[in-house]
Every structure is written in structure tokens, then in C-alpha cells.
Amino acid sequence: MKLKDFYYDLPEELIAQHPIQNRSESRLMLLNKETGEVKHETFKNIINYLNKGDCLVLNETRVIPARVYGKRKDVVTPQGVESSKIEMLLLKDMGEEKWEVLVKPGRKCQIGTVLTFGDGLLEAEVVDIMEDGNRIVKLKYDGILNEILDKIGVMPLPPYIHEKLEDKERYQTVYNRVSGSAAAPTAGLHFTKELLQEIENKGIKIVKVLLHVGLGTFRPVKEDNIEDHKMHSEYYEISQEACDVINETKKKGGRVICVGTTSCRTVESAADENGLLTPKHEETSIFIYPGYKFKVLDCLITNFHLPESTLVMLVSSLAGRENVLNAYKIAVDEKYRFFSFGDAMFIF
User: Whose CB among 37, 63, 202, 313 lies 3.0–4.6 Å from 289's, allowing a Cys bridge?
Assistant: First the structure.
């Protein structure tokens, strides 16, 4: 399939710049994946479309304030000592204090360059340069990294959000638990604790999985043939308990409803050919696009995604490209709010 097959026209003013005051008051589009029929709702009423015996799958990752600003440490040039300003975005924990990072400007960060942030609270030495230009750095700090990042880091909001986020917790789900993501699993931002309790009280199982969101998911697809696109890997975990609940749900004929594309990629990565889940903790680079046969997921709660993105391709594989693009056109006409802080869609 061609990249242009997943393009749609989006007026810039529909890109949400801030979260609405009450999470669950977002608008909700209902999309029937078989018929393409579209209905309009408020997100808090999603409980009316969930059935006893269904299973809701949440990604409990927590976004770290992964963007830090600093400078090169004591770089000596022919003209003397130079301290260049550097922006670094932590992408993935590689273990042993090594991280994959994105640095700007990259030309100033060759192997051996030492970067310093927060008046020395955090240092990073460039130890390798990856094929795509990302760097591998070795971090040096005293104390706990997450506490240091809370002091000196800022939330890595997507580049299409230009307004400052006053409350960092609004870029976190209410059920976040494990730090490690460079971006939020944004479909989950619509849930409140009260709504989740109501859902549970109705007899719907809630299970939690983990996938640390990297920026690979959001990188633009540059290949004209989408099959040539290579996804970056992301770390995920699924427990025995989560596997048991999901497997039992499928066995009894209930629906597995993933909250967000990250939860979807987790369960689909962990399943065998028969759709049976077993506990895993590993990397996944799964790329879901039309033609993919879902092994576990039945329904998806998701936001509205960027044109020509891998996420539009994923939802198109579930509901059909024509149905999705038609729904997106309706969303534009109805002035839905798009992307991370925007409205939601339930594909059922």
C-alpha cells in the first residue's frame, strides 16, 4: 500500500493545544468497524457500550520529564573554551545507565562529547551514534534519576503542541505506575478513576500491561511503500495475571478492548498464532497495517492520529481504510479535537 493512501486534510485549528478541564467530558466518536457507521457521544458514556464479561486493557506506563536543556562540557576550540547549548530527549533505557537519546544540534555531539544539565546534576557522555542519528549516552548522576528529571526535565510534548502545559499530571493517565515513556498513551487520558470504578462495577474486567512509548511510533513514514517502513522497538511487559484474564475473556466470548494503540501492540506482540497469551517482558517492533489479522484485540479506544502515520495505518487495519478516512472526514466536519489532547474514538 502507498503512503498517500493514508492522507487526510486536517485544518491546523483542530489540533488540540491543551487538555479539556474534565478528562471524561471529551467527545467520543463511535465507529462500527463492520458497517462504517458513525455515532457521536461523550466519553464518560462509553460505559454504555461496554458489556459485562468484556475486558479493558490499560497501559500503566508513566511519562518521564525526558527533555532536558544543557550544554557541552568544557569543549576546547581553537578560539578557546566553548559551551554550546544542547537539548536532549531521553528515549529508551538501554541498561547500565546507557540511554538512547535524541540530541539537538546533533553535529555538536560526536562520540566522546560530554553534556551537562541542571548545573551538573546530570551528565551524559556520547558513546555511540546510531544509524538514524540518535545517540547512545552514558549517564552520570548522584541519587535517583527520576527525581533528578523531576527537578530539571520538562514533559516531552509533541511538536504540534505549542502551548505550555500548566499541570504535568494532565499528560499522565490516572492509572500510570511505571516510569519510562517518552510520550503518553493518550487514549487513556480520557479516563477518570471514578469512570474506571463504574466500569469495574458493571462486571468488566480491567487488566494492566506495560509498554514504554518511544518516539518511533510517531516518526513520519518516509517510504512510499508502507511495507518498507521499519518500526523502532519498544519495551513491553505482560504478566501471568493479565494473560489469564484476557485468555479467559476470549474463551468465554467476551471482547478484549484495548485502550490505545500501545495496549494493542502489547497484546498482539505477546500472542501466539492461536491468540493465546503468555507472560513476556521483551522488545517489540510490531507494525500493524491493513492486511494484519488481529489475534487478541476485538475493539479499540483511541485518539485521532496524524495523517500518513503508522497509527492511522493501525486503526485502518482494524476498521478498514475507507471507513477510517470517512470517519476522520466527519470528525473534521464536526470539529472534533485532534491528536494527543484531543477527542476519542471507539472502534467496535
Answer: 313
The C-alpha atoms of residue 167 and residue 18 are separated, in whole angstroms, by: 10
Residue range 339-347: average pLDDT?
98
Which amino acid belongs to residue 251?
K
Q: State the CATH number of the domain containing residue 99.
A: 2.40.10.240
Q: Which residue type is seen at 123? A: E
In terms of domains, do 216 and 199 share one? yes
The answer to whether position 341 is within a domain reads: yes
Does one domain contain both 259 and 118? no
For residues 284 and 291, the answer to whether their CB atoms sit within 8 Å is no
Please report the pLDDT score of residue 75 as a whole number: 65
Q: Which of 65-69, 71-75, 148-152, 336-340 has the lowest mean pLDDT?
A: 71-75
